[in-house]
Fold:
Amino acid sequence: KFLFISVFSFITTALAAQNFTISGYVRDKSSGETLIGASIYDKSDPSIGTATNNYGFFSLTLKAGKHTIVTSFVGYADVEKDLDIGQNQTLNIELGEGLQMQEVVIKSTIEDKNVQSTQMGVAELPMETVKKLPALGGEVDILKTLQLLPGVMSAGEGNAGFYVRGGGPDQNLVLLDEATVYNTGHLLGFFSVFNSDAIKNTKLLKGNMPAQYGGRLSSVVDVQMRDGNSHGFAVQGGIGLIASRLTVEGPIAKEKSSFLVSGRRTYAFDIAQPFLKGGAAEGTNYNFYDLNTKINLELGAKDHIFASGYFGRDLLDYVQKQRDFHFNMDWGNATGTLRWNHVFSNKLFMNVTTIYNDYKFGVGLEQKTSNFNFNMFSGVRDLSGKVSFGYFLNNNHQIEFGTDYIFHTFIPNKSVITTLDNVYTVSPENKYGHEAAVYVQDDWKVSSKFAVNIGLRASAFRQVGPYTSNIDGKEYANGEEVKTYSGLEPRFSMRYALTNNSSLKGGISVNKQYIHLVANSNSTFPSDLWSPSTERTKPQDATQYAVGYFKNFHNNDYETSVELYYKDMKNQIEFGESFVRQIKQDRELQFVYGIGRAYGAEFFLKKRTGKFSGWLGYTISRTERSMPAIQNGEWFATKYDRTHDISLALNYELDKEWDFGMVFIYGTGNAFTQVESFYLINGNLQQNYGPRNAARAPAYHRADISVNYTPLKWQRKNYESSFNFSIYNVYDNWNQFATYYDAVVDQKTGSFSIKNYQITLFPIIPSITWNFKWNQKKG
Structure:
């Protein structure tokens, strides 16, 4: 009897000590969309938990026995499941829209990721938050919303371009379903290419980026498209003063596969055509369009296939009949992504991706009376592949490893000039390069107070022929190695919990960048060219150091943080003092090189819950360069150096019908090179410039407001309708976009004076948009 009891007790104790793993996907109950970053944890011990990855998959290891598992996601009602765990099992969870549970212990666990995570400089933007804020012309814009976060500076008035922690526009990696988007703007950057109705999730990483991301120095913007509704057909869209959009989605095989097609197009100039008819500008037109497509196929419990594409284009035609002058310009991106998700076990997840992306720019000039015609085009094209693995060793170790490869083709400005007598062709060589990397990282919870993320990325870039050296004239055959660069990129970040709702964080990251975009304007334009690392141009690299203090208040309703950073940059690229763009000359022959530094402090306060929500961000920073070829190596401010930057974003929900939004922005004026003196040569005005970027434009400030009205009497079971009223630049501040000078000559005395003219783009602009949504409910 004693022996039987002893053996039984031993077996019971051993069984109780066993650990088993539950894994699966978390999805939206009404649409079947996977939810990224959803929390899954043990109700009896909320410290035992995990979150879904970028594909909605989770893995959680628990001791054998009875557990109550809670699943939570912002904007959804929590779901509890009672489990008696005695073996590994698959658990797929669906969440419905609603309020989260209000128990303090739960809120302190599921809503303090900013405190508990090892990552710094991370921001996730739910589309519902983005859609409530005011927008230029009523067009909801993810990239404009990112500019409201500390450490992220706008590229200029109304522009979707942005700078992060002292980095240039090319130092931001923008991904759409893992495909690189080389030009993110429509209308010369005033609108982004991202149609809000097609987007599921947007994540910003400011430096200290995990090891799976690479190829840029400053930030990653990871945008993921929606998968489409697998439970029923749905239609949504909007009609505004500038553009309209329409999204159609539905199941291919119910609850197994889905499709999504989403389109957007402008028509402001189309409407204006009757007013231009018969005038000097008849035929002038501009429009842009976006088309997002996606197919989601579930091949079984362990396999998913996703095929997605983006196609966008800007078309500009400018006509002056009196001068018989016609100018046209078009540019745009095309991307295609094919992904395969496979679950090897409840601990090992794999994603395989192949990507094609193509960015093209073209411009043409025609004057028939003089028999003159000019056409130019350029672009960049990539073919790439990625294999990544997520290994959930246990609740304290989440390991990721993988490899990626890109074959780049860079197409420089190719021109054809036709005159009455001749045809001139300027056709510089394409440039080719292979870029590859392998990486591994471990997100390691060392103890309840201390956690680290340790990663290492090894990257390389090889320029290959056909190529003719602009150093010694040597010719390289197709595929022949011209120059190879490689290096290690270690990443380390840590978190030390001071209390349950406060922590200290620190991190060091090394990044290399093998492709470059150097622009001589305050913003990025479609004509700016990407260029690879070559025998003359070395890769850029940066080391960033960051520390931060994070604290939440009032049961995580309020989130605060202070982050300090210093970034040391090498092989930075600028144009020289006497730069004049020449079509015939290789762009890299006009580059000068040097070092850079950026440092600053970011302050953030956010209210996350209640009728009144929003955030306040403030950044104080400096960004400088030193280059031997510019001012003998003296430090100078970059054009995107901004000492002070303040952003306030607020939302107030009055009731179920009315909510109000407001945005206020203040920023130190852009640095620019001041004209110090003028003189005339043969009646032509000449200018002498002062030190590089030593002057400042006036400070930029603007306030926008919006009202969303959802009339309840128009709402039906499967139908929603609302109106958005917004005013951009509500107090009509004339912010400076650019300046130019003109000489006024006194014909009697021969003396002249100089007048300075300021260009302002956007005065006060009201807009109205009607939004609608129809959804065939599940079941």
Q: What stands out?
A: DSSP finds six helices and 51 strands in the chain. The mean pLDDT is 86.
